[in-house]
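May I ask for a single protein's sequence together with how it folds?
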Amino acid sequence: MGTAMFAALTRAGYDVSGPLGRGADGTGADGTGADGAGADGAGADAVLLCVPDAEIAGAAAHIAPGPLVGHCSGATGLDALTPHEAFSLHPLMTVTAQGADFAGAGAAIAGGTPSALGFVRELAHALGMRPVEIAEADRAAYHAAASIASNFLITLEAAAERVAGAAGLKREQLVPLVRATVENWARLGPERALTGPVARGDDATVMRQRAAVEEVAADLLPLFDALVDATRALAAGHDREVQPA
C-alpha cells in the first residue's frame, strides 16, 4: 500500500518523502525500524502510515507533534493515532505487489477535526477516488464487506479453479465467465444476475455437482453446501419479488 500510495500521490503533484519500506531484516530502506522508528515526520504537513493494523499505534508514537497523521486501515479507528490530529484514508481497491490504480475507486475517510477531514477529502479527490465518511462504529462492517467482495472472491475462484482442473480446464477458461458475472452483478444487482441450476430449482443437477466436488476436492464440500444454501435463499428472494401482487 505504501508504495502504491507514494506513486499515486507523486503523480497527483504532492511532494512525498518515502515510502519508508522495510528490508528483509525488518528495517526500512532508510534505516527505520519495522514500526517506523527513526522516521518522525518532522517538517511534513501530513504523515500517512501504511502499516499493518497492529503496528499503527506504535508507528504513530514515533511521529513528532505537528503534522496531521493518518492511516490506511479500513477497520481501525482514529484512536490508534492519539494524540495527533488524525485522519484515515482507506482505498476501496485491491492492492498487490504490482501496484494499484486508485482512480474511480471508493475511499472510506474519517477525520478527528474539521481540518483533518477536509484534508483527507481533498487527498481522496486528488487521487481520483470517491470519498465516503464511515462512522467509527461501522468500520468493522465496512471492512468485512470489502473483504467479502475482494478477498473471499479470490478464495472462491481458487476453489473453482481446483475443481475445474480435475475436468481439464485452466484458469483462463474461467476468466470470461467470472468477468461477465461481476459485470452482470454490477449492472443488474444480485437477484437479477443470478443464473445456474440452484436459481432454476434443478436440484438433481446440484446433487450431481456435489458428488463431483466430493470426488475431486472433498474438503470443499462444506463451502459448496454453504454456498448452495445461500444461493437458494437469494433465489427465493428474487422469486418473491417477481410474484404478482
